[in-house]
Queue: 2 jobs
Job 1
Amino acid sequence: MTSVPENSPFAALGLSAALVGAAVERGYGEPTPIQAAAIPLALQGRDVIGCARTGSGKTAAFALPLLHRLDTRRPAWRRTYALVLVPTRELAMQVGETIQALSRRMAHPVKVAVLHGGVSINPQMLGLRGGAEVVVATPGRLLDLVDRHAVKLDDVNLLVLDEADRLLDEGFADELSRLTALLPARRQGLFFSATFAPAVQALADALLRDPVRVDAPAAPDAGPAAIEQHAVEVDPAQRTPLLRHLIEQGRWSRVLVFVATRYASDHVADKLRRTGIAAAAFHGDLSQGARNRVLADLRSGALRVMVATDMAARGLHIPDLGVVVNYDLPRSPVDYTHRIGRTGRAGATGLAVSFVSAATEAHFRLIEKRQRQRVTRERIAGFEPREASPPAPAPSNGGIKGRRKSKKDKLREAAAGGG
Ligand code: AMP
């Protein structure tokens, strides 16, 4: 085993040598603000509500203390000690991989079971046969497996909710209350999300014991300013040609485009493909195998554009994703935060472009208001809207966090190219 840098700042957080080594091995130099704030509290056994922007290292903020427990206090052999709930299948796979990778240097191997729908249940049942110390799951499939007696949750000491506000909203309410009823009353809870609406906060409090709320300040390099936001006025019918134009003129190499429906996802991807741009749809009607392939292709660079529904808005980490486009605006300001948070991750810069029309102008203003940020309306030569928009709020360039001029310039270049 290679030597562990004892002076790593991760050692100062109180983590075991195996985990400090794993963090260093993964190239983590300094703990991110959410890690620095949450890990010591989690190690003390406190319940934590962690609020930090997307891409800020939240996974390791709960994975490291979780593994530390297993490393230092070996629980009963192969009983499920930690349960991590996530809202989507892709996030389950991603979180499972991170936990497994961070456990690599531990003296006793940790078994991590990743359980989600969309794939056959039988291999998951087989995989659970010998037990698993860590279960990472979407709620519906986990309940199926509980009902089939494939997994028991009565030894769970640690409950993690990743993208907690999503798991605590109505869509998951029944499943979540069934699951929490199966857990021991005495347990630790770590809930993480980029957003916590007040109603959600009350629900979270009810599931936790005297929780400490940690609002991690943005690191100088990883704050929201790392995402540069643009709003382009365009008639709805012109959005696909404009998108194609921006992709080509800006030489965008990896783009995530959000649309409102599965139909639009197929349709826009199809249109881009017909003009020679490697694009694919990503939505809930696709098989899990197809979803995995699309994501893998986007990550590898085989695919240039992924056109997705909000299913892709939460938690997904796509390295070097430079641009997010809101082809259709999201329904809520919270969804906007999560969508644009797919870019500008781990200290990288990102560009978020929203298409706004006369019909959606009022809705975008609401998003701006909640974000407490004005975004100047722009027009691209050749794609100016014919419909008149209601007068936009006075442009305030100071409001746009335009620290990184190069990205902005790219958009301008795109505009110039359209003349
Ligand atoms: P997450 O917010 O958990 O999705 O993490 C976003 C990205 O940040 C992932 O690629 C992590 O590997 C990376 N990351 C997490 N913690 C650190 C750290 N302390 N230093 C550098 N990168 C990190």
Job 2
Amino acid sequence: MRSKVVTIDRHIIDQERRHPGASGRFSALLYDIALAAKIISREVNMAGLIDVLGATGDTNVQGERVQKLDAFAQEVIVKAMDHAGHLCCMVSEESGDIIPIPKRFELGNYVLLFDPLDGSSNINVNVSIGTIFSIHHRASPRGVPGALADCLQAGYRQLAAGYVIYGSSTMLVYTTGVEGGVHGFTLDPSIGEFLLSHPRIRIPDPPARIYSVNEAYYARWSRGQQRLVDHFRGVNGEGGGGYKSRYIGSMVSDVHRTLLQGGLFMYPRDTKSPGGKLRMLYEAAPLGLVCAAAGGRASDGSRDVLDIVPEGLHDRTPLYLGSAGLVDLAERYLRRKRAGGFES
Ligand code: AHM
Ligand code: MG
């Protein structure tokens, strides 16, 4: 047993005490995210059961309409966050436009960007999925509704970012940047509290020799990308080898493993998705900040993902995320035009 039980609320308050000028708003915002995560977690855990209990039509056992879980998660987050006076607007993968704060509620200083349920196509096969969140300070003066310029900020400007993974247990992992570190909390469902289980997460160094990518797209990749993976496999004269491949296809799960064990997660550009698949604002940037704060790196293949200023709410990016040395290696391969091995 740990010598001290620390709830997420206690942890957030302790962190805030280190910033004497803090208003408490930011802590309350993180607290509300944790609350939404608990509600989503409950529903995700029930998802299989709802099917078993015969939601043959569109209603569940209580006679309520069964919603798609990603729509449910979206609604939970919006309802948990819109009325508390912390936010000036929100952005979600599930909404094309900015989600405004209803006029009847106070406007705040922060922007919340989120993917309510990433990897939700995995839910029917009981594979872990997740919620991803990113928080920025508004760029415009307070008192007016948030606008595009508040949302389209570079990742390094995030005040906090994190994810919730709904797996064999539910965990919330968040960071307020390199100085604050990365902390993981496991939900104890018997008391309904997130308890600090993984303080100050650092990506292991040396990392596990794991690469993670959807190899079915090999034929659609650039030569540099193909040779990088050849290197991990130790084939086609690229040297290297000795790696394991792990790809869940649920980004939060793949990134969570990468954070705890090390390795390289990739979603490269390819001929079908020339700009990559993953979204900058609520997938790549927040997970990139978590990774960087744990001692790793996140790149689009040539530059740091956290330096990129997006032009649209739903911009996509190629992504290479994980142990710094492996992200560097990926960049070297992608720059390289000709064959020849690299050491790793
Ligand atoms: P989504 O936002 O529509 O759920 O898509 C994102 C997911 C990620 O979780 C995962 O890394 C990726 O899509 C998997 O894509 P693919 O099936 O092409 O490998
Ligand atoms: Mg997503």
